[in-house]
Amino acid sequence: MMIGPFKAKEKEGQERIDKILSRSFQLPAETEASVMEIITEVRKGGDQALAEYTRKFDASEFTTERIAVSQRELDQAYNQVTQEFMAALKKAIANIREFHERQLPSSWFLPREDGTILGQMISPVDRAGLYVPGGAGGKTPLVSSVLMNAIPAVISGVKEIILCTPPTADGGINPYILVAAREAGVHQVFRAGSAWAIAAMAFGTESIPKADVIAGPGNIFVTVAKKLVSGMVGIDMIAGPSEILVIADDTAEPAFIAADMLSQAEHDALATSIALCSSQEVAAETAKEVEQQLNQLERADLAKRSLAENGAIIVVDQIEDAVEISNQIGPEHLELMVRDPWTLLPRIRHAGAVFMGSHTPEPIGDYIAGPNHVLPTMGTSRFSSALGVETFLKKTSVISYSREAFDRDAPDVMLLAGIEGLTAHSRSVGIRRERS
Length: 436
Fold this sequence. Notes:
By secondary structure, this protein is of the alpha/beta class. The protein has three domains: 6-25 and 240-369, Nitrogenase molybdenum iron protein domain (Rossmann fold); 29-235, Nitrogenase molybdenum iron protein domain (Rossmann fold, 3-Layer(aba) Sandwich); 401-435, no CATH class. It is built from 18 helices and 14 strands. The chain has a six-stranded parallel beta sheet, sandwiched between helices. Strands 6-5-4-7-8 form a five-stranded parallel beta sheet, with helices on both faces. α2 crosses α9 and α9 (194-203) packs parallel to α10. The chain is globular and about 85 Å long.
């Protein structure tokens, strides 16, 4: 496996950069067709369709009676988790809550002397639907995904929060998921996975109520399902494979850079892991560290494929060059392992999240720091943001005109409507001038 170091201004380095810049996340047409069939079946068959898909792919003895998780099951889950887990969970919840509470926008109103009042009213959706993947058949429960989706929804004021997650082979759900869901503020949990869970939350079934917004990570089938129901319900984003970009100077520790690159490479063979180094020595040592640390990973084969296809260690002439390349890429996760990251931060224009300094590895953000780990990928940080409280909020414009303000603006409205050929619009204003 050869991931560098390459020099940014030489052919192979430029080719690696160009490949990263041209990355795209394709949703296969055949997958869309399969998912559309699933959505249609769930929309038509409701709970029965959910049970059939669950028997086929998750739990062979599953029945419709098991779709909803009972409060008794939630209570019992607490007996199956450790006290150490509960302490870590409560710390993470407190940090995530504190961060997201600062995101809450306020309604506002602008009164004018002529009696006009204009404003914007902020209100939450009625029901949020969250999706959490099964995590290797329930063996690796994605607790952090529960927290990162549920807590912003709670803070936004959503009155009903439901969560779907696939059952294990015996029809259960990992107790760590259930405890995290209750502690985070989820109101009801359902056993449903993949595209059929998304369809159920988008359109409703006998057991699962229709949601207004659906959020949460998932595989290609979940991603395609969210894309297909978008517009009928709100979604958080269409997320691609994980990404990390490390900007490093001569003070950076190569072992840290390598470990952080591998932290994303182990996610997915399509994940992107890049280091932009202003020091040839740091770059070379990082390449050695990657090789050494790979052998210690449970997912070494997966990480090796990821790095071979989408990894690179690139040497730049100066840190400013690294910043410019990073802004072109717009990575999901950006780490600044430099002498003074705060000096560099104002020059960062596009990134999902920025991790400052050698003691702020990306997993800190994944689990416990507080900011959301659901981030834009594939360069979409150029125009989009992390999942947050606003994902579950909507804005309503408020307009109130006095008679004085109406008389002042009516002629202009009639003129503009007439130019557009909308005579009924013009008449709506004109009739008030005539009869009042």
